[in-house]
Amino acid sequence: MDWGFIFEQAMASALGPDAVVYALAAIGLNVHFGYTGLLNFGQAGFMAVAAYGLAASVASWGLSFWVGLLVGLGAAGVLALLLGAPTLRLRADYLAIVTIAAAEILRIVIGSVSLKDEFGGRDGLQAFNASFTDLNPYNGTVDLGVFSLSRADAWVTTVGWVLVALCCLLVWALMRSPWGRVLKSIREDEDAVRSLGKNVFGYKMQALVLGGLFGALAGFMVALQQAAINPDNFSTDVTFNAYAVLILGGAARVLGPVVGAVIFWFLISGLGTFFSEAAGGTDPLIPTWLMTDTQASLVRFILLGAGLAALMILRPQGIFGDRRELAIDAR
Amino acid sequence: MRVRAILGLLGAAMVSLLCLGGSVLAAAAVPMAPGDEGISINVILLDQGQPTAENPKGTPIPGVRIIVEDATGTEIGNDVTNKKGVASVSVAEGGDYVVRLDTDTLPEGTELSDPDDVTNSVNVLGFDTTVQFPIGLAERTGTDIGTRILGLVLSGLKFGLIIALASLGLSLVFGTTGLTNFSHGELVTLGALLAYGFNAGLGLHVLIAAPLAVVAMAVVGYLQDAGFWSPLRRRGTGNIALMIVSIGLALFLRSLFQYVFGGDTKAYDRYVTQTPWTLGPLSITPKSFAIDVIAVVVLVLVSLAVARTRLGKATRAVADNPPLSASSGINVNAIISIVWIMGTALAGLSGVLLGLDQQVEFQMGFKILLLVFAAVTLGGLGTIWGAMAGSIVVGLLVELSTLIIPSELKYIGALLLLIVILLFRPQGLFGRAERVG
Amino acid sequence: MPAEATGSHAASESVGTTGTTTRDHDAILVGEDVIRRFGGLTAVDVDRVEVKRGLITALIGPNGAGKTTFFNVLTGFDQPDSGSWSFNGRSLKGMPPYKVARLGMVRTFQLTKVLAKLSVIENMRLGATGQRGESMLSAVFPTLWRSQEKINTERADTLLQRFNLDAKREDFAGSLSGGQRKLLEMARALMVDPDLIMLDEPMAGVNPALKQSLLGHVKGLRDEGRTVLFVEHDMDMVRDISDWVIVMAQGKIVAQGPPLEVMANPKVIDAYLGAHHDSDLSVEEEEARLEKVRERLQAKTGPRDREDGDPRE
After folding, report:
1. Of B249, C125, C216, C233, which sits most exposed with the smallest number of CB within 10 A?
2. What confidence score (pLDDT) does residue B96 get?
3. Domains in chain B and their CATH numbers?
4. What is the rounded CA–CA span in Å between residue B259 and residue A25?
């Protein structure tokens, strides 16, 4: 058992591009769910339209990378308006069902053979981020002591964490303002807010769009990190994992999503490496009749599911949350 | 009274099938393909997406030019497929040949399953050799639209009925506890997996394994309420928190299934392929027929039970208004426990039938979960009749939409409908406007 | 039975027999032919109702009389099947609740809606209208809203003092007692600076000691020139403070007039007794009872999810 290797792998995920993607996605969900109480179960859809907006603009339609970014953000914004208009007047779980359905529709359409020329079908799209990699200031592998990042990963990671920092700053600024106060009040009791003369629908829509744009940034990071995208990058599980990240770190906390993403990826990657070490090799720690190589990669997801349920039951405020300020009424 | 509507639909489908049946039975016998001396390379073109009564393997495609070339690319000969879809080209000796299909001669609307597969290399060893060009495997196109619609209606009804079993369970649980259960799909899967386990693992006959799995699911239903959901309810955990708990549970179960069962698709040891019964243009395999009958019977029985029995009335009272029911002497917890037992057993049955119809796989339930949500929402959350009618609509929509859109997109229609319904009629098609949820 | 007595009939009767101050006041809120049905049940069927400016008007009636439904309709939280109603001469038909509130007609709720996970002072600040910081763009730049926030906070502190909540300023609103919640809700409504404040059962669930002080606060509202309309089903509570009483029973207005006179009206007594004679529970009554149960539960365990409510706005 090579503990050093396991730790290295865990840290590389916890501080690398994986954590960046989920931190951004969860920051968006934090605006939706943590502060406003909107159950968006389609964050993967927002990520998908942004990533594909960018990739298709460059790879299929020959636009510039920077225009592609605008297309991606615009697509996420439009998606928020489309989903919000019918559902934000309805009960919370309707939004959940509509957003999850919309995300699935998008994933199926994007991967369809009929639109292969635009979106590349199951194979997805590649070769769209040259403008981004051209800006890479690093000359080679970056060694951070515990782990090292390849030249490309180092650049993506740097940009990613800067984005995360900016987003957190924005959320912090917004949530201490009267605007943020209205959102939190809507989460508590929207009729009360309405009775005080606030346009609840308008605020919910603003929150949905803002959180969707954060999701778009997460989608961009997926595209840039992999230098390629395919429909499976945006499955429903991505959204659910982002919820796990949010709840782990603490909903309605500015840094909750960031802390959550780091811990989430440390655990997922660490456990993954641990079990593949434990079940692999010539004389595995865990006998093969109990766990094969393939099964080893699944243990972390079993634990993830159990962990999400247990966390929600036992510590819904997350690791650093304050129970009295708990956004979700869980008890 | 939705059941009557469903039965009516079934009946109407049968009658229209009988009427159409006569007109198609007019295909004349065709003389055999020319069999010249020497060795011949035969090509049979069948649209496999269009099996019919007299051509269970697929409809022959006539009039398509087939060209045979030798290894150097020189044309040896060509022929055009006859009414049986057969073309034949004689070659002098064994060896490597390339068989090419002239796609321009394909009838309008017919395409090769793999459009790039216009050539076939064959090694002829001195016997007549038959070459096939797969047509209509991925997509069904062309030929008799009526037959196609009938086939789609039948498979849509079957799919709808399977979904209905799952929706009923979801709707009952939602109605009485307010839980939007994202792990319901995993209950469907578990039913199929248990049946597979009893069948392949313990060697029981499918007809024993299947009901045993449903009974086991009823026990699972009791246990998961008593051991998991009931304590959470007692703590007063909010609905949204419970929804997230159910997501965690779903992730947990799905990964666990994959761990134990593996990632591949398996089938029960019987009834995998069957010769369909045919009735005019209509063909239905005995197992599909059995699935329809079982589902209809169970749905009718459950609906009658909910509508007529004391227990059913109590269930509806709890669904309507738990505190009031409690104050009027109904044991709410006992009712909820029964609802969990029933809902889980129904989900299990849905999985068993789905496994029989398609095959067994660790995320089969997850894949239909959104359709189940669509069905339940379509009919109106928490209403039993609505859930069933919504399911039939979803099943038909999914299958019939393949008339217009590629079958890879067939789930989209139902999901779009879900969104549209919420836009214009959030209480569902059959829900009452006043008491939503 | 009361169903025969129409609102206008009762109104003319009472105006004819009293010569009180009410003549000097114009109507701030007028409703005509307002009908709201739930399925087969007509919850509200009001021919004509007027609320006079500068007075305290009580809307009373037995459980299930349709008072809260009528309240919801007037404030835009529910849409009636037909009818018209106007505030300060402006029609409110089809107007969403937040616009009604902005016109200066603010309501509280029977089931108190404080924002449990916000502090008391944040609850108060939320009430202020026209906040520049509530626009998303200027929210990011505190210089644009900080001075306004300071003024609002000062106003909030004054109100908290007046309602004896200043000691709780930094506490979570969820930690307040039932009576304190009622006070906070009333104070928060005043942050909107309404012309008409509509209180839905301000005394429900309040302990007797606090009741007197609450009554005093309601009178105080009138004394500073606001109009008050409040719902109550307990007639004794009404007698002390109201200038005008409107009695509803089975969705209709059966009588109105000055409190003492109304209470002597046999129709009113009939309405109350009549309702008790009926053994069938109407949907409204059922709801009211449920509300009580929920309130009790809530008092025990704290606020619950809102999921059991109506999903539409």
Report:
1. C216
2. 77
3. 41-132 (2.60.40.10), 145-424 (1.10.3470)
4. 28
